[in-house]
Write a structure and sequence with these properties.
With 416 residues, this protein is an alpha/beta fold. The protein has helices at 99-111, 126-142, 177-187, 203-212, 226-234, 261-267, 284-294, 349-358, 364-370, 373-379; strands at residues 27-36, 41-50, 53-58, 68-71, 76-79, 81-86, 88-89, 92-93, 114-119, 148-149, 152-155, 191-196, 216-219, 239-240, 251-253, 256-258, 272-276, 299-302, 314-318, 325-330, 333-335, 342-345, 396-399, 405-410, 413-414. The protein has two domains: 8-79 and 391-414, Urease, subunit C, domain 1; 81-379, TIM Barrel. Strand 11, helix 3 and strand 12 (191-196) form a beta-alpha-beta unit. The protein contains ten helices and 25 strands. Helix 5 crosses helix 6 (261-267) and helix 8 runs antiparallel to helix 9. Strands 1, 2, 3, 4, 5, 23, 24 and 25 form an eight-stranded mixed sheet that branches. The protein starts with 26 loop residues before the first strand and ends with a strand.
Length: 416
């Protein structure tokens, strides 16, 4: 691959991580790294970054006078991980509704290779949700050391009661135009994704409104039949949240079998499935089945992690410190205190990729693409995120063969 020189016409202006225009262009070269674009492994090469943008990708060595240099030491150079479903990390939950929680969770995720994420809510009061909106806007501007807070993912409150999982049943309800229009008005353009059960009364009308606003629609916590899921697809649902978790499969009624959301997810090639790839929520045989049927382009990885991510075993809280429920972390997952069910993931981005390579036994390039290009594409930000290409944002992670993170670079800034 030949060296591609930077052309100012590729972009109108350059901005740093925090939205402030810079007068001096910073140059950074990542050398001696095995580059995963992630469409392919191009071998040992160099990535050139000028300010916040990738300006060259080359299989050889590059020298630019005055540039800062990072020697990758033969380790992998990958696009930064993108997590569209996370509730927190580092003993912080986004529902804590504090600046410390947002910044602390974003920083912990960055340490584990995630450069862009959508903070995800739990079912709550509308007042609590509006407080979250206000805080998110402030945290988005204040964030200087963590993964980019790209927008909010609202998980609920429009869920099937039988598939509530760890969601608080007090707040489950059907979509009501008076309510959701107010939420949309107050949320504005920070709402990027909304997960809900498409079979609920009023859900498809609600979906029409979300689609009109360009908000990503995802089926979740649902008892929908195959037919209802396929109808939801026609209304704009292109994704299924945490596949296999709280998603209905084959049921029997009056002795007859009926297919469900799981079967629709496998059948419809237009549906991208989100997978909690901690190796526990979805075990090895199902990870292999998902890969065999859907392939890497129709799978995206997520952590769906709670505050205990990055912490270790012991007692923790699912949800906010004020209104959450006590859980126990052991065996690499959070459980209800009586151990009757899982209560949340404690995975981080690096673990998700590692699990797909080592447990599901798929090529590293494809495992990386599921945590980078796939989520960028489904969210509609792949024009600037999710791959190492000239003209795209310099969100890059360097990791060793065990997927241990060595450096995290966000829009050209070396965070770790």
């Amino acid at each position: 691959m030949s060296y591609v020189k930077f052309k100012p016409t590729l972009i109108c202006s350059l901005y740093d991580l925090y939205g402030e225009k810079k007068n001096i262009m910073k140059k950074l070269i990542i050398k001696n790294g095995r580059i995963l674009t992630p469409f392919r492994d191009i071998g040992i090469g160099s990535v050139v970054i000028e300010d916040s943008i990738i300006t060259a990708v080359e299989t050889g060595d590059v020298n630019i006078e005055g540039a800062e240099v990072i020697d990758a030491g033969g380790n992998y150079v990958s696009p930064g991980f993108i997590d569209l479903h996370t509730h927190g990390a580092g003993n912080h939950d986004f529902m804590d509704a504090t600046m410390e929680a947002y910044l602390g969770a974003a920083e912990m995720h960055a340490k584990h290779g995630t450069t862009y994420l959508l903070p995800t809510t739990l079912t709550s009061t509308n007042e609590g949700l509006y407080d979250t909106f206000e805080l998110f806007r402030k945290a988005q501007k204040a964030n200087k050391k963590g993964a980019i807070l790209g927008g909010l993912h609202l998980e609920g409150p429009y869920f099937a009661f039988n598939q509530k999982g760890a969601q608080d049943p007090r707040y489950l309800r059907n979509p009501d135009p008076k309510e959701y229009m107010e939420i949309l008005e107050k949320g504005g353009d920070i709402i990027k994704r909304w997960s809900m059960a498409p079979e609920l009364p009023g859900a498809l009308e609600f979906a029409t409104e979300l689609k009109k606003r360009g908000i990503m629609l995802s089926m979740a916590h649902t008892d929908a039949t195959f037919e209802e899921a396929m109808e939801a697809y026609e209304y704009g649902f292109r994704h299924i949240t945490h596949f296999y978790s709280c998603t209905a499969s084959i049921t029997r009624r009056n002795a007859f079998r009926y297919a469900g959301v799981v079967e629709a997810g496998y059948y419809n090639d237009g549906i991208v499935l989100e997978v909690i790839s901690d190796g526990i929520h979805v075990p090895q045989p199902l990870l292999k089945l998902l890969y065999k049927i859907k392939g890497p382009n129709r799978l995206m990885l997520c952590t769906d992690c709670m505050r205990a991510a990055g912490m270790g075993d012991g007692d923790s809280i699912l949800g906010s410190l004020k209104d959450g429920q006590r859980v126990l972390v052991e065996d690499g997952v959070a459980k209800l205190p009586d151990r009757t069910a899982f209560a949340g993931s404690v995975a981080t981005g690096d673990r998700c990729v590692r699990t797909m390579r080592d447990l599901a036994e798929i090529p590293l390039v494809e495992a990386v693409s599921m945590m980078t290009e796939s989520p960028a594409r489904v969210l509609g930000i792949d024009d600037r995120k999710g791959s190492i290409q000239v003209g795209k944002d310099a969100d890059i992670v360097i990791f060793d063969n065990n997927i241990n993170i060595k450096h995290t670079i966000i829009q050209g800034n070396v965070i770790f």
